[in-house]
Each structure stands twice: as structure tokens, then as C-alpha cells.
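User: Please fill in residues for this 191-position structure.
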């Protein structure tokens, strides 16, 4: 993440509408340390409102919470999503992701003996990063475990966090101090 500061600063508290205030109040850090992602993306209020619905649907989808967080963390790592990586460390831990697994997600996957389905989902992320799409062999493993709708959800989850990593990196959205401290405590991860 660039140290030159955000290209578009987050909205100041006196610019928050009621929706943003409620969202920030309920978010990690609350109003004392408001999440920069929300206060920045809220500069486009109608798109922000619709994005919240889409992102919320992905976070409450059919995939298990653990698999969802594994995919988000690996996607954040592979697509240099420092902001999302930091904010999903604790969410991953809450879903049973261990310290060793976090380190592997932010580096070499082979350092952990993954469940075959989890490994296939992580390979889907890596193949998308390396070749632009999921390879046939990986797809076959995923398709043997998931219904077609769940496969769509998995790809939408991966694509959403790829997009989000790119947007936040391009906007130079900075991490809040508590999220930075959390990321500093995990070996590896995006730069």
C-alpha cells in the first residue's frame, strides 16, 4: 500500500449520513476508529448502498463461513489486498482458521495439509490469479462437492474480493491502526 495517503479521503464525520453512521457504529472500531473502506466508498452513495447489499449477500451465502474466509484471505493475498487481508484475519479466526493456516494463506499453501475441497477452492484463487480462470481439474473437484449455484457463489466471492482489492489499492485506502496491528501480527500476507 502506498504511503502517500489516500487519493480520495474518507468522508469526515460531519459528512456522514444516517446510514453510514449506523454502519460505522456497528463495524469494528466503531465511531472511534471508523472503517476507511466505508467512509470512502460512501462518496458514491447509491452505488455504495447497492454494493453493501451485494457484499452482504456474499458474506451470508451458502458457502461455509470457514471456506468463505479462506477464499477471501487467499484472494486478498494473491491480489495485493492489504486492507481486506487485515480485516478478514479476525473473521477467519472466528471461523476456525488457525495461525498456521493464516500464514500459509499469506504465503505457501503447501505448508498446511488442507482438506481437499478447501485446497481446490484455494487453487481456484491461485489459478484465477495466474491464468485468469479456474482450471478444469480444479473445477472437477469443486463441481463434485457443490451445486451449480454454489459454484457461481464461489466465483462471485473470488471476483468480488479481486475487484475490492484493486479498488482499495487504487484509491490508496489506508488501514486503521488496529487493523494494521492485527496484520502485523500475522506472518506473510500482501505487502
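Assistant: Residues filled in for all 191 positions:
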Amino acid at each position: 500500500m502506498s504511503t502517500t495517503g489516500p487519493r480520495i479521503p474518507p468522508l469526515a464525520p460531519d459528512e456522514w449520513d444516517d446510514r453510514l453512521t449506523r454502519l460505522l457504529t456497528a463495524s469494528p472500531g466503531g465511531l472511534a476508529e471508523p472503517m476507511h473502506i466505508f467512509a470512502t466508498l460512501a462518496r458514491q452513495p447509491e452505488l455504495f448502498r447497492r454494493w453493501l447489499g451485494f457484499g452482504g449477500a456474499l458474506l451470508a451465502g451458502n458457502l461455509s463461513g470457514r471456506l468463505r474466509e479462506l477464499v477471501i484471505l487467499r484472494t486478498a493475498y494473491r491480489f495485493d489486498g492489504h486492507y481486506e487481508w487485515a480485516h478478514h484475519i479476525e473473521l477467519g479466526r472466528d471461523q476456525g482458521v488457525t495461525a498456521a493456516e493464516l500464514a500459509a494463506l499469506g504465503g505457501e499453501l503447501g505448508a498446511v495439509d488442507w482438506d481437499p475441497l478447501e485446497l481446490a477452492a484455494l487453487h481456484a484463487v491461485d489459478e484465477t490469479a495466474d491464468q485468469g480462470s479456474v482450471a478444469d481439474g480444479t473445477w472437477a473437484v469443486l463441481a463434485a462437492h457443490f451445486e451449480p449455484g454454489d459454484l457461481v457463489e464461489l466465483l462471485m466471492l473470488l471476483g468480488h474480493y479481486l475487484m475490492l482489492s484493486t479498488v482499495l489499492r487504487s484509491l490508496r485506502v489506508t488501514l486503521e491502526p488496529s487493523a494494521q496491528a492485527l496484520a502485523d501480527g500475522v506472518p506473510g500476507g500482501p505487502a
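For context: The CA atoms of residues 20 and 137 lie 43 Å apart.
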